[in-house]
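Thread: Restriction endonuclease type IV Mrr domain-containing protein, structure

OP (GT): Posting the sequence first so everyone is looking at the same thing. Length is 279 residues per the record. Can we get the structure tokens written out before standup tomorrow? I want them in the notebook alongside the other entries.
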Amino acid sequence: MSDSLESRVLGWLKEQGFPLEMEVASIAKAAGFEVSQSEYYLDPDGGEPREIDLILSLNNRKGDFSLTYNLFVECKSSRDKPWLMFSTPNELGSSLTQDNRFNFIELQSAFISSNLADTLLLKSTFNGNLDHLYPRLNTEPLLGYGVTQAFAQAGDAPFKAMMSTTKAALSHTKRMSKLFGLYVPVIFATPVIVIDVPLLAVSFSSESNELAVSEIRRGNLYWKHVVGGRSRIGVYIVTKQEFPAFLADCYASAQWWTNVDEESLEQIRKENLGPKQPS
């Protein structure tokens, strides 16, 4: 291969999203996650096959139970168009109290999980053990309700990315819940978008009656768009620079999730609390 061809190919690749996806995969492997690239899933709203950039996972088995922690990652590259997350003060609460129990039920409903995992999340919420889990919607001072891309002339990259990652998480969780056979699936799934441009939180200042813009490194979005029959899903948006630190938090959470003791899991199964079905 000639030097000019190699240079042209590398130049073209840098203008696409492939380098970001490959870099993110490398970071995830170094963090200890199993990484699957270019996975396909069936769109839960139409049945068409679609592609997700990355699935990051940590798995373990405890007796009859198969415990899985998944991150479904879409990578979006754009040299000079920052993403804007429209935000309000996060009122979901940093800890469980009598006054904010409803907020925590709302938080728990935004997770994507299998049947028994959903019950585990609910019990963890009311037992005060949810602090072990990350990412979750009560971790940041601002909570996003919408995302757009500044200076974009056409298309809606944030919306497409959110649709892709949430649909992949829902579809994969539902499919894997049916394939475990001899094992009871305990699946936790989080949609994640990684960007290589600044992420800005846009909020309204009641003091100045003006918009306020601040740069953040990771943001949580409480997305109320209907996807796969769900109307509330938590989505995390992370800058490439912040991704290694974000993954370190996720890996610590994954270690906790995949090592829940078998006795607790058996108790949850016996109680038959009637959790929601994965969509």
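GT: Both are above now. Quick notes for whoever picks this up: The longest strand covers residues 49-62. The chain has one domain: 37-271.
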